[in-house]
Amino acid sequence: MTDEWIKVAALTDVNPDTSLLKVEAFGEAVCLYVIEDRVYATQDLCTHGQACLSEGWLEDGTIECPLHQGVFDIASGKPLSPPVTEPLKTYETRVENGDIYLKAA
Question: Rounded distance, CA 80 to CA 63, Å?
Fold first, then answer.
């Protein structure tokens, strides 16, 4: 494990209507979520249907896949409803001076 943090976006880049933003980090697509002034990050690709979660629906700390409506817990990556069964990869986040950083795994 490394202590390297990389800047991936500014808080102002996150769409205020959806609270979602797709970014590239560590060679893959990552979805950022802003929930009650806290930033979370998961892999953007659904583990079931290969859909972009950044195009899904955010509600009560969960993200619903736009392809087959599987639901994941954003904080843990845990699958919550079929057809998803595999968890999402999650990333540690921090915000400094209005910028969002992810920790390299």
Answer: 10
Distant-in-sequence, close-in-space partners of 82: CB < 8 Å, separation ≥ 6: 70
Nearest to 60 by CA among 22, 89, 33: 33
* Beta-sheet strands, E only, within 3-43: 5-10, 20-25, 28-35, 38-43
For residue 98, the one-letter residue type is G
55 three-state secondary structure: helix
Name the pLDDT band for 2 (thresholds 50, 70, 90): low
State the pTM of this model: 0.94
Residue 23 — left, alpha, or beta (φ > 0 → left; ψ -120 to 50 → alpha)? beta
